[in-house]
């Protein structure tokens, strides 16, 4: 122990093998290790070849590949941790955090000889654990001299003295599955940088290799540099949040990547297995890597014997360093070497170290960076590492920047697309190194001199090249694979290393030295040294890119690219900043005074002195010249007519497209509720509440509050009273700042307390903050960062079933990744208002957005609305070259400030100052100043100046205000600093103007949003890193975006900046009025009037200057030096009514500015004359011009001002044009301009990107990285297509983008769910400023109305009919049998009550009335006749809210009844079994076989011969059973066509009581009913009843139940129970019964009983009826049908009459009374009459009522009568339902019984003409009741012996109906009735033979006359068994 093995290489072979064998024996109890001598002598001693040594190994897996051990792999069982200890990954057993990212700032005192190292845990691949280890047990720089064993301490809890690594690994919770080894898990040295943070240092050299000697030789210097590294954040704890320009979309690398491993994955795709890039590279390593370059490692000798408890070691096992080992040189302190590739703390497993193209270790001689490099180049060159070993750099490192992004791009191109993996990776290789370098050179050559390279372009070039190279090969392989043939791939011509340099030089020779090729043969160090020498000597002045190529046979092809162009290097260097770092750098330069030299430079440019001195001169001149005419101007101003309408702000206006979007949102919410996942139960919610999250912008917050306030949504949702204040609305908007947590917790508390309220969380501007909470807290970001993740993605939100999240954004791309929480089915995209030129929504406004702005730049349009300022760009580039150490944002801002200041001065009279500004800036300032003069109210334009840096914005605001005030323009326009943290602050003068224009009377009112600045002339300096959803007013005329920086090369950033100018314009505005008219250079002589973007106003001598379409060319540059028309346009403005122009002066750079030329003076005199002529022409002799009275003194003042040569004709606030503007009718140009979108100015680079179109016709910007927090899954991805819809784009991003570690969705991968979608989360995306907030508020409105609608149902609300036609027993006797408050009937009293045969149910209002001797005169009968199937349309209904005891349909889902429904993703599908049940019935003449479908959970209701055996019977309770939680009566519900809408969910109705509910369905409908109701018992009718009506269902229910009653009596009789003790009742309930009520009668002081109705459960109803005394003596028991008007008219608590819809049937008493199985309609009336005639009691509980829901689906409507032969759905009249026998009538596809019933219902007046409206002489119907229509009265008579019939003495009948009469009907029975002469007889039989036999048997021919033509049949074919009937007349 403790001895080194150095120098013992030749003596330890036997010891090594013996050690390995012993170790294997100790670790194995069931496997026999290989014998020692077999290992020692049977293995050949082979040296590694160079190819074997060059194998690419993964550093993370180099100990697991099995190459270093001959012992078998045996699972390792860790020692169980002590009880109560911590077992969390990353923590020690004492519970202390050991992760580097969380202890990097802690300072630990280490014992002497101990150092900190990093350990890797297999369960935490993203983290490094900090360990304190005795350095004696670690290897030296050569990988040797490590003592055997281990000694370490815990840095978390401080425990010391761990002597075994196994013990130590248990303590720090490594949780290993293999034997713990320090060589495998101790990976890195940990060092502290200059800021004191622990960082991950070099790898621990556990192995020795020649390839590492060069790097290890410098380890001492590397360690010292690491300890002094200036980077405060190591690769383990730095977020990768930004890359742009050449960085593009490359994935993150590491910080200070010269010192740390280039551990960059080729893709950030979160993949595993075969789809991972690691797997792909591993598969092709041995082939592709070996073929493309030779070995760079060489032969590796054996290093020494194994360490203690190490795997077996043999000479075949390489012990050298991994090929991906990093070089050890680091940036020097204060170095300028900066890495743009940053790795986050939360690194995914797929982003671990992968094999590189070649070794990235430092090799060869170091390279000296010369001094004065920055001075020689005027920029800091950017070195992009490419292929091979990048040399060690030392010296003047401050003057260079090193990046690995190009290297990452090369690595990405090596990963084959997953789509092609199926074709085999052995035949399809990636691009070779030589081809990649050559393509890079080709790309650089074709760049413009000022163009910055983009990584996206290079990646697409690689992808296209690879596709073209292998397209034919892939196709051949596909065909061969499909035909199962052997394929020999075609040979592809490859670029060799010898050809590479020559081809590269050939390509570079075509680009005028912008690309320089340096070829070297030794190493890249040689080429870099030569490049630095050339740069110092100035030989590369014209060179933008230097490509160094090294072709070494031993090392392979190596390369790197250096950017030396001033513009390109600056842009690339600045693009490596994150947005936050960029602003921090700008603030640093301002704070340290670096910009003072820039300010001093500007003061030297003007020959007349600095601007302040010129302002002093102008101020003196202004005072002298304005004093004489001030009074006259004010007089004229006061006399201007106030004809301009007031400016109103439209806060809430719903357009058709917004309503359509709101409905789409509602549709998606309903789809979530209707899905089988049961994640949203809309039926359980009573109201809607909401909360809107907005970014921490005060302006956005206030504008959202005002929109809510003006929308009225709070009152509509019932959240506030009618008088809603702004403070009330503020409660529903939350800024994502420090106070958001309190409001959010309050919302969560409300949601928990109000489970029946649906809370909608609207996350507006959802793309703004996507930072994860972990990243924000770890990097100590501000409190608002990561807040959206903390609130909206917390566990409480996910689990709350009444919370719905709606993300609203214009840029949804970052929310559409592979790990998104939003389902693609829950995305709603804003629809296009036009399709093929058609207006889909009839909008009165047209949206003008990004695509329209880009379209305006295309050929065929007039002056584009998207522009760039060429002169400004050239000035910025020139000044930038002079100040290379300043950030370009600072330079550009100061230049723009100077431009604005010079433009203000030029517009105020200093004409020569226009040469110190650009034409575009001058145009904006002139229109800004002069626009209020064209409006009688002073309305003006807004100019929006975008400055992202708040510090620079403050400088600009202060400077411009200073210049404006010195010029005396402080009352003409306002300059507003738009800080997102505060609202706009404006002067009191402008506040009063706004209050006047908007008619605001509040004295304390101040504008709090930008929208409220409508028509205010102002410059809005819009600041902040990103826009946060602020809306701008319609008076916005110019969007100056010239200062937006490189982050705009990300799609979201670019589009949200351009979205500030998005506009809604009137749809009637033509394209010509949207854009402006351009003028050619030849129009200079025509410029008496100037056309600009704002108004085409022509004055005397002017022309509009509109060019023909052929003259309209796309403008690529708007530099004033190339077009004189712009100078003319800028100098004159139609907004101020000018008729003058200025000289055609060329705007040059600031260094060459000159004074005004003599041409200006001559043109000034010319314009003076034109003004005088124009004024005289419009001025009449009376001094009037139009309706404006002009004082002659003012005219003299005007003349005096025109004569002055001190002022330019370009105009100022107090010049002649100010007065001349009053000589013309003032027109409010702001109102006109509001119908046109604003003009947008962009930086040149951004303009080129925004207007570029790729090969698919899509804007080039669409192919950029969608957001800074996401990365591309792979470079090999298809391009977005122009034809892609929004949905297809979403799927594209979901497939090809992954979130970075700092993205809030990154953690979504670790939740181990089947799908990571949050089911109650939606995404609404739409263009900026299109009205998404209004659509969301409208969605809340219609959602609330829908919930109310769901909680309400349409109930039948009809009074009972025919109530006066019968004088009941109580009225006859003058007393009531039962008082209204009686709970149950008295049996004896009830028997005395006569039966009311008249039907009072309003459903039968159009049915034939039943004759009664107590009926009233026929005059009171209804005579109206309803049309066919019109009953559902004309019956009266009312809406009523569902109670908690309601029955529900299949759409109801809630937590309480999910088990009752039997369908939930949380439970297994309910199993059910099919059981046959047969019984015989003599009337049918055959055995009836029914089938029961019984779920497993309901089998306890039945008896089986054995478990799972034959069904024997259905269990029935005893009459004496009583239980408060049990209902004795089985419930049968016959249904058809209502599997979705039938009210079968009785869980809430039964109030949780145990009950038996059986659905009775037809055989063909059984599958669909089982699908919707899997936990319901179903009785399936035989197939012969598939076309039968409700009578068949009732018949089978009753007969089956009676048969079951007999079986139960027999079964329980064996148990000693009497047969009469078995419960004989069943309940037959309609499928539309929804609620039940009971009337309570309260006695007041006057002994009057006042009824009050309350809703009760079905359980209460059934238990109340079951408790009826002597219940077994009642045959049928029912209740009243609910009506809102009936409760006050109840005089008796019970009635002896018909019962319907809800019937308790006594099976015992009704044994001999059957339902008619053939009936379709009125079968219950028929059955009631049969039961009464049999002497049975029918009781109706009047104080109980049932509510029936209107369901217009299913039921009787399922029976359609149509032709059997015709395909067309023609209408068939009821008269066609019958025909003559043997005729050629069209047969109908309907049951014969249905045709007969319908025919009799609608055509009985033809059969019984004497019975029409003849209620005194009814039609006699024997043993049946058939509906003959409402105008024919039917008298029911029973032919059964001892039956109860009415007294018919003295009654003459007008007709006789014999329907399928049986043997009880005899001739003598009929002879006792009297008929009128001419009365009609109708006999219905099954066939013609029975018809004749019945006539003979009943001796009908004696009194009735028959004719052959009076025989008919139903219109059925013979196989459908028609019914026949015969008519006759009484003689």
What is the compact description of this entry?
This protein has 1931 residues and is of the alpha/beta class. The chain has 55 helices and 55 strands.
What does this protein structure show overall?
There is one protein chain. The protein has 1931 residues and is of the alpha/beta class. It contains 55 helices and 55 strands. The N terminus is likely disordered. It is 29% helix and 16% strand.
Low-confidence stretches: 1-13, 26-73, 208-363, 422-426, 481-491, 626-643, 1068-1225, 1365-1370, 1416-1433, 1464-1468
Structural class: alpha/beta
Characterize the biggest β-sheet: 12 strands, mixed
End-to-end separation in angstroms reads 134 Å
Q: Roughly what percent helix?
A: 25-40%
* Rg computed from alpha carbons, rounded to a whole number of angstroms: 47 Å
Number of E-state strands: 55
Indicate the multimeric state.
single chain
Task: Count every helix, treating DSSP H or I runs of 4 or more residues as helices.
Answer: 55
Please tell me the overall pLDDT. Answer: 76
Overall 3D form: elongated
State which percent range the strand residues make up: 15-25%
Note the main attributes of this structure.
alpha/beta; elongated; 1931 residues; seven-stranded mixed sheet; disordered N terminus
Secondary structure layout plus pairing:
Elements: H1 13-27, H2 36-41, H3 50-53, H4 100-103, E1 114-121, E2 124-134, E3 152-153, H5 165-171, H6 182-185, E4 186-192, E5 198-203, H7 210-216, H8 219-227, H9 277-292, E6 367-369, H10 373-377, E7 382-387, E8 393-395, E9 401-403, H11 405-413, H12 433-445, H13 455-483, H14 497-508, E10 515-520, H15 524-537, E11 545-552, E12 556-563, H16 566-575, H17 579-591, H18 596-603, H19 611-626, H20 630-638, H21 656-674, E13 687-694, H22 698-711, H23 713-716, H24 726-730, E14 733-735, H25 740-753, E15 757-764, H26 773-778, H27 787-792, H28 795-799, E16 803-809, E17 827-829, E18 834-835, E19 838-839, E20 845-848, H29 850-855, E21 866-868, H30 870-882, H31 888-907, H32 919-930, E22 942-947, H33 950-966, E23 974-978, H34 988-997, E24 1018-1023, E25 1036-1040, H35 1051-1058, E26 1063-1066, H36 1071-1074, H37 1124-1131, H38 1158-1178, E27 1184-1185, E28 1188-1189, H39 1192-1203, H40 1216-1220, H41 1229-1233, E29 1239-1242, H42 1244-1251, E30 1270-1272, H43 1286-1296, E31 1297-1299, E32 1321-1325, H44 1332-1350, E33 1352-1356, H45 1369-1373, H46 1387-1391, H47 1431-1434, ...
Parallel strand pairs: 6-8, 7-9, 10-11, 13-14, 13-15, 15-16, 16-32, 17-32, 21-29, 22-24, 22-25, 23-24, 25-29, 39-40, 39-42, 40-41, 45-48, 50-51, 50-52, 52-53
Antiparallel strand pairs: 1-2, 1-4, 2-3, 4-5, 7-12, 11-12, 18-19, 20-26, 27-28, 30-31, 33-34, 35-36, 36-41, 37-38, 42-47, 43-44, 43-48, 45-47, 46-48, 49-54, 53-55, 54-55
Helix pairs in contact: 11-13, 12-13, 12-14, 21-44, 30-31, 31-32, 31-33, 32-37
